[in-house]
Amino acid sequence: MADSPGTKCLRCQGDMQEIGEVSLVTGKHSAAAKLLFGQLAEMDERPWALSAHRCSSCHLVELYDPAP
Question: Which of 41, 2, 42 is nearest to 21 (CA)?
């Protein structure tokens, strides 16, 4: 696995290791909208892929946007 862009933990300066990709879904609809409209309420929600990295010393987890 590759190192993070900073390669050092911001908290303890330990080595950061990539642990995988995390997909977050952004959107602004309430549960009531999803109940009333179902899948139509989620049409404008978009996944946002982030690269997750963990410090080998203190286990701090950081998320990075892999897009330039």
Answer: 2
Whether this model's pTM surpasses 0.70: no
Mapped onto helix, strand or coil, the DSSP state of residue 49 is strand
Q: Which helix (H) or strand (E) holds 36?
A: helix 31-37
Q: Does 50 map to a domain?
A: yes
Q: Which domain holds residue 28?
A: 16-64
6 within a domain of the structure (yes/no): no
Share of the chain above pLDDT 70, in %: 65
Residue 15, both tokens:
């080595």
Beta bridge partners of 54: 17, 61
22 vs 31, residue with greater confidence: 22
